[in-house]
Specification:
Length: 378
């Protein structure tokens, strides 16, 4: 288990560290291996296969080939957030998880991928089961297998439909891709769809919920954010450091004997990277347990390269693929909450948490308020 910033960064960039669970020796059991019956997604692959699959998907998600996929979503995001907060009007208390933090990223990733929004109740059940594979103690192998099979059937139908009648979404683009990297097989399309759907919402929900909770615990920061909307960029960056949605990465393996911090990690052993601890390493940041968005003020401290300051999105070749989208969603949701909720306060502190050890965030977050400021459109 590695918990210090410098060593984690070193290992994230070390080619002798694999993300493929097949490299584990038998003694290191209990590591999630992805979805049973499907090939690993690129999250669980090493170069060169990782790089090829990531490049294929990137072509349809980010500049230079697809410059507007994320940026072009900004107006739609504002509309979705505005609509969800409009739903709070006339009430004095809401569950931020169920009524904003979860429905927002679900709506966005469905639209992006071309998954019908009304199918959420179906895939929600499968995803809940699949996430249990992150926690080997639940003993849910049969449930995980069943959920994987049902979700694969569902996505097979969806991919075939998009191939026959392609739209402007990512599943259509991936299913009909004839770019320089060659086509994805049907199995690769399935594992990529699973990865994007799950990574695309199960993490962002925690960033928005952890963010709301943290801001309500620091009312002076919330008040500053209300008066200075530009501050939201720093707030989200500091949240990724201070209350990250992904606490640790449990699926790395040493491909060789690796010397680090006067310790030898033997070949074949499992390496757990404690990203959240690394982001609070006192040798890396000043006063690490203080929530202080100003530490990301570029005018005061000169923000270095993306990802340099915290490990919220990991690092190296597996650096979060969806980081620009996650940032935009959290900035929009938290900015609008700060602007529109009048006198917001926590009803229960601490709130009940999800039981997942990797993905950390509240299961529910009851927030009371006096009124709702009308939306800009209103
Ligand atoms: C606040 C929200 C998010 C957080 C905190 C987060 C965090 C992370 C982290 C820590 C990793 C690295 C895992 C590793 O090193 O093994 C990662 C990888 C990844 N994330 Fe995110 N993520 C978020 C949102 C998203 C979104 C919205 C998407 C999709 C649109 C996404 C897609 C991915 C993918 C595909 C990978 C695998 C990248 C690779 O293996 O090359 N993530 N994410």
């Amino acid at each position: 288990m590695v918990s210090t910033y410098r060593e984690i960064v070193e290992l994230l960039h070390d080619p002798r560290v694999s993300s493929d669970p097949r490299n584990l020796t038998a003694s290191a059991a209990g590591v999630p291996e992805g979805v049973p019956g499907l090939p690993a997604s690129f999250l669980h692959l090493d170069p060169p296969e990782h790089d090829r699959l990531r490049r294929v998907v990137t072509r349809h998600f980010r500049p230079p080939h697809t410059p507007d996929r994320v940026d072009g979503l900004a107006p739609e995001l504002h509309k979705i957030v505005g609509g969800l907060i409009d739903g709070f009007v006339g009430r004095t208390e809401v569950d931020i998880v169920d009524e904003l933090a979860y429905p927002l990223p679900v709506a966005v990733i469905c639209q992006l991928l071309g998954v019908p929004r009304e199918d959420e109740p179906r895939f929600h059940v499968w995803v809940e089961s699949l996430l249990k594979s992150l926690d080997p103690d639940t003993g849910a192998a049969a449930e995980v297998q069943q959920a994987g099979t049902e979700m694969a059937q569902y996505f097979s139908g969806l991919i075939d439909a998009h191939r026959r009648a392609p739209g402007g979404d990512m599943l259509s683009a991936l299913a009909t891709d004839d770019g320089p990297e060659g086509q994805l097989t049907q199995e690769q399309l399935l594992s990529t769809s699973f990865l994007l759907l799950i990574a695309g919402h199960e993490t962002t929900v925690n960033l928005i919920a952890n963010g709301t909770l943290t801001l309500l615990r620091h009312p002076h920061v919330l008040e500053r954010l209300r008066r200075d909307p530009e501050m939201v960029f720093r707030v989200v960056e500091e949240l990724l450091r201070y209350e990250p949605p992904v606490h640790f990465v449990p699926w790395r393996t040493a491909l060789d004997d690796i010397e680090i911090a006067d310790t030898t990690m033997p070949k074949g052993s499992r390496i757990v990277l404690l990203l959240a601890a690394g982001s609070r390493d006192p040798d890396h940041v000043r006063a690490p347990d203080r929530f202080d968005p100003d530490r990301f003020d570029p005018d005061r401290f000169g923000l270095a390269r993306e990802g340099d300051q915290h490990l919220g999105f990991g690092g190296g070749i597996h650096y979060c693929f969806g980081a620009p989208l996650a940032r935009l969603e959290a900035q929009t949701a938290l900015g609008e909450l700060a602007r529109r909720l009048v006198n917001p306060r926590l009803v229960t502190d601490p709130p009940p948490y999800r039981t997942n050890p990797v993905l950390r965030g509240p299961r529910h977050l009851q927030v009371a308020f006096d009124d709702i400021v009308p939306s800009r459109e209103g």
